[in-house]
């Protein structure tokens, strides 16, 4: 009984991360696009819920090939021997038989993870994507792309066979979302006015840092479901250990990003502090169960440094990611997956509080991790690009320049987020079209 | 032990719905009334806590008549055989003996439900009600009206005897709150400026859609306590099943309301998306434990459609409900209660994931549900109207026109919600009194 | 197993109180200092996590002297006999051997408490403190000062031996934070413009009462972890009882502060309502497990009255506390600790729902409580003052007058919280230096 309570408790925390991403991304964007971002981040979990129930779960956990399931594909339609009695399900979703909770508990827990991968994309494509295109892409991601990655690693598929480990999804969830976000950001092109023909970059600050900070607190909270919940069983030693490594990496990520941005940029930028927290959390997601508390601090510190550098560098190569989602989820999803190979203890010892930074996995484990990173990168980037391009051909993916300038809230939704407040007109109508921003317009 | 942990965990989630309603309703109203709404939604749970402890619990669960309890009436004063040992209470609150948790766990769980009924009212009467009147009405609702409904259905009373089912309170909580809100909105009359003498309707957009969206996320979160927690026991099969039907109905409500409003109004309105979510959640509250996942999707989809139509139609008949509370809680409370009769499986089979849409209850069950809907409607509307009118006679219920125009924040509280920001003067002083808005002024 | 689930669930709720304090304090301050407050309240838990892991935990719970631990001091380095098996840790942290959860579960639960003490300080020193100084002070507080208090009371130290009780930390957490806040507010001096030479006081309203209200809801939520979780075991009777006494005190605090401020100030001030809630919660923190529901209502009511008076009186003596943190946490931390002596039942009877207001502890208990209050007051005020003065000498503690006038957001962080919105210029540049505000400038 307590296992199911634990799984539902942690699943609910992960569900709440939708609110966290919504606040963070809306806060980091301009008020004129706020309704659009809130709408995207609100509807995305509804889309995910339907898509994962309809086919995603079956592809991910159904018994079948090394790349996707072929049994119990549709609408959770596997042999249903468990829930009425409360015993653990032991049917055609064999790869997840190791946890003894009812089938619908497994489904719900995995659903909130699938939803997370989808909501990550929202931030990177914000402020210029058509609402309908985002909805369509989210469906494809959760119905088809994410489940294939999940099957390869958590569904008993190809990468699991190669010995790759990913405890709670640095790769399965975060890198997958990150690669899909990168593909979207590249195909959409940057926001109008972000990069100028003279080579300069215009910073576009978010409209509400209170909102962004609430969002980041909610995400940190949600991660106490994400990582400790991935035990899918209330194992006292493991869940206690994972709660502490998760928190330590977040703390180190915050300190790393804050002090590095202080040195690098002259002031401790709040946006960097928040993204440092998320970077540490993403990085510890894969190794949280296998590394010491001391290692988790090192992993988080490195993540905080990486995210600051990545945000600066992606901007330099003109990949416009309004909220830093790619720097957080892709870069640190990769880092965390490799860090597991670097810092894992030589045996599964959750609960070890010693600070030994043992290279325990050996080069074999590290190679398997790298293989996983590369495989998922190639597959998701290709599949997501294909999906974005198909949607572009079908219904278009970017709003008109006029709509982008006046804001997507009015154009896409007919709403205004803050009608009682007087708003600065920060961006006057352009006198010439911006080449970079307009290039991908469809 | 795990049962009590489950009950407290879910109760705490339901408690947090107070924050959700506060944010949703404040966000959907104008900034000039924001402090008033926040104050109402904050104090209402304090009022509920005292009222339900003082007499409400006893009336609801005390052994007694088919309509209210007569034993253990005051201040939880039943024979107290349980908490010291942790065994389940088995005293004069016989109707709730089926759950084996301590008396105070039962009380706390039921208290947060009672508080929800009260907080629902707040939105419908917003932007014109006197603060004191709302406080008095909330006390009456939780001390007297809600417990009678609860006794009839959950306290072993008259409707329970007739075979009516309401798993987590589509009728007990949501319709009750909805009927009380309708009575209040009618007796108060519409806000000044909303409906004009020439027959036109002025939309009055909410001041902060970020706040409203956070609120709705919190409510969705809270429903994972509301419905699965109503097992009041950690039955793995049941709680897993209910978590999934609850979420599926929310998802379908979101999609239904979004796409229907897109067709009906031309754009996907964020307010409709949010209310669609709540509509689906309200509708699944009664049947969540008795219907398949497939049925839950249908129930939610219909709820999403219903809420959009209801919001439009209530506006046409000039029932002014600033946040759509009546459309969400009353209309879909009724729909969910009837849907239980339509979609319940022929036996209690939580955990069935098949998509059979079995008319299992038969016409007998459906008739009992309809009887429950009608009985509660007549009783609550009459009792609430009486209470509103008594309060109107005693202290008045509506602020002065001058105060309404300048905002209740200054008039009632002497506070301003956002003093640092420059505010649009959207509503100039009127040159003539608005007949509709002024009619009910006391 | 369920004990560890309970401890982690409640710890996570307490962790989330960081978000609550962040929202509350940012909302109660001006928008020009919003980023600074959010930054402080976000980074403070990262600092706490490192400080408590590094040395704080060992000082607090390590076996040793009556005032601090001397074994297992560094980085949780006690003999580690528990987590791998999930059995309760029984090593050199003997004072906390009474709970049978893994060492890292104990650590995580205690860490979130330590973090709370630190975050309390943030509000009282807001709008004029240097970011770096706050970071340094937080480290010292969590690494050194808080653990000594904790050791004396919860770590088997001197005050525990004297018979002082403090169930969940009215003194250990809240008074400690409050004394440290008082020392900081005195040494910093008031904000520029708050108190004028002619003796008048300028109210400085907070910039976002929606944010403050969300924050207070989150704190109320978090207290359902703070108090019931302090059982550190899933004892059904105790945790149910504590949930209800905690909530009742909050409710009574809300009602007390609202109606008293209504009488005293003419209107029901929302800020007072929110602080009344927190005051009730702080006051019930020590006695929650030992008093009846009726007593908890009285304790909360008194707290609501006390906080209104304290806010007014601290302002009169020109102790500038922008959010009322000292009135909430210090004044009511003391009240709650003494109330335990006044209202505790004569035996440990969690679950008693009777309303007997028994003077059960006798004068011996009350004297022990008073000794604890005095000891902690003297120690923390002295140690915190020393720390503040050392930091002042080392790096300075207050921003320049120019920076204070223009806002700490630009000066300390280079960020603006709400760049899209038009802001009132409420505070023009001064024509003369304000004597009070400038006195402590370093």
CATH topology of chain A: Ammonium transporter fold
Number of helices of chain A: 15
Cα shape of chain A: globular
Domains of chain A, number: 1
Main beta sheet of chain A: none
pLDDT averaged over residues of chain A: 92
Largest interface: A-B, 61 and 67 residues
Which structural class fits the helix and strand makeup of chain A?
mainly alpha
Q: How many distinct beta strands of chain A?
A: 0
**Estimated radius of gyration of chain A:** 21 Å
CATH superfamily of chain A: Ammonium transporter AmtB like domains
**Oligomeric state, counting identical vs distinct chains:** homotrimer
Descriptive report:
Chain A is mostly helical and 442 residues long. Chain A has a single domain (2-395), classed as Ammonium transporter fold (Orthogonal Bundle), CATH 1.10.3430.10. Helices cover 63% and strands 0% of the residues of chain A. Chain A contains 15 helices and no strands. Chain A has helices at residues 2-28, 34-61, 103-124, 131-153, 158-161, 170-188, 209-226, 236-265, 270-285, 293-316, 325-343, 362-395, 401-406, 408-413, 435-438. In chain A, helix 1 packs antiparallel against helix 2 and helix 2 (34-61) crosses helix 3 (103-124). Chain A starts with a helix and ends with a helix. In chain A, 71% of the residues are buried. Chains in contact: A-B, A-C, B-C. The interface between A and B is large, with 61 and 67 residues.
């Amino acid at each position: 009984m307590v296992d199911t309570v634990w799984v539902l408790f942690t699943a609910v925390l992960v569900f709440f991360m939708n609110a966290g991403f919504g606040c963070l991304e809306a806060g980091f964007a301009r008020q004129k696009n706020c309704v659009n971002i809130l709408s995207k981040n609100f509807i995305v979990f509804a889309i995910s819920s339907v898509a994962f129930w309809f086919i995603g779960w079956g592809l991910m956990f159904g018994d079948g090939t090394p790349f996707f399931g072929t049994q119990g594909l549709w609408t959770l339609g596997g042999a249903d021997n468990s829930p009425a009695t409360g015993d653990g399900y032991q049917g055609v979703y064999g790869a997840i038989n190791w946890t003894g909770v009812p089938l619908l508990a497994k489904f719900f827990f995995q659903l909130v993870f699938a939803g997370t991968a989808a909501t990550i994309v929202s931030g990177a494509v914000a402020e210029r994507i058509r609402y309908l295109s985002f909805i369509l892409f989210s469906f494809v991601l959760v119905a088809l792309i994410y489940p294939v990655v999940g099957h390869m690693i958590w569904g008993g598929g190809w990468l699991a066979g190669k010995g790759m480990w990913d405890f709670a999804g640095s790769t399965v969830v975060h890198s997958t979302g990150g690669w899909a976000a990168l593909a979207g950001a590249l195909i959409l092109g940057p926001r109008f006015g972000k990069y100028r023909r003279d080579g300069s970059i215009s910073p576009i600050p978010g409209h509400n840092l209170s909102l962004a900070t609430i969002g980041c607190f909610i995400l940190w909270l949600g991660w106490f479901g994400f990582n400790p919940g991935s035990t899918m069983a209330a194992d006292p030693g493991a869940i206690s250990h994972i709660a502490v490594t998760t928190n330590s990496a977040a703390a180190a990520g915050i300190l790393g990003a804050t002090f590095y941005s202080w040195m690098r940029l002259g002031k401790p930028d709040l946006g960097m502090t928040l993204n440092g927290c998320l970077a540490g959390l993403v990085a510890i997601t894969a190794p949280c169960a296998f590394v010491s508390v001391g290692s988790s601090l090192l992993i988080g510190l490195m993540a905080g440094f990486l995210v600051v550098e990545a945000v600066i560098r992606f901007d330099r190569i003109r990949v416009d990611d309004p909220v830093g989602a790619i720097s957080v989820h892709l870069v640190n999803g990769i880092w965390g997956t490799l860090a597991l190979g670097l810092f894992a203890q030589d045996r599964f010892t959750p609960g070890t509080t010693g600070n030994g930074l043992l290279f325990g996995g050996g080069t074999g484990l590290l190679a398997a991790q790298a293989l996983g990173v590369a495989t998922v990168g190639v597959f998701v980037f290709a599949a997501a690009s294909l999906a974005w391009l198909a949607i572009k051909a079908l219904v278009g993916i970017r709003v008109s320049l006029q709509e982008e300038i006046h804001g997507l809230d009015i154009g896409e939704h007919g709403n205004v987020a803050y009608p009682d407040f007087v708003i600065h007109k920060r961006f006057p109508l352009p006198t010439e079209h911006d080449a970079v921003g307009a290039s991908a317009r469809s």
